[in-house]
What does this fold into?
Amino acid sequence: MGFWQKAMIAVACSPALRRMGEAVGRKTGLAAQFVSGSDAADHVARARELDGQGIRISSFYLGEYVTDPAQVTRTVTQLADLVPKLDEVGLDVHVSVDPSQLGYMQDPAMLRNNAQKLAGVIGEIVAGRNDERCRRLMIDMEDFGMIDDTLAPHDQLRGRRGCFGPKAT
It folds into this structure.
């Protein structure tokens, strides 16, 4: 692991350093280039704006190395609420989430259950549809130490419509 990655992981894992980094990002405008907003409504509005410019989006929920089970629950709930809102306005539903945001740091079963929950929400949207819009769940690996645990929910959900497998037909 390189210096930059180690430094960013240290920032992500330290509440004080994280707050400082987020403050710098807001002050410099750096965050505005990559963060669509503070809630689902802001995100959908920004995604629609970008879609109008011909730019497709991936909804990546920020936060790495999440150790607080309550934050895991909030993250999964917020993403599950976001998915239908994106679909309702005709946008791609491409949700990217880190394993620890789904419960990796607590219990592999929590990670699997939360991945299944989000895949189920996306699967409900896909049911009965046959269009070209993207509806996918991506579990993004946080670091090399999580390879097997990141691939496990992928393997479990592979082939499920609207998740990792073939496009709905």
About this structure: The first helix runs from residue 3 to 13.
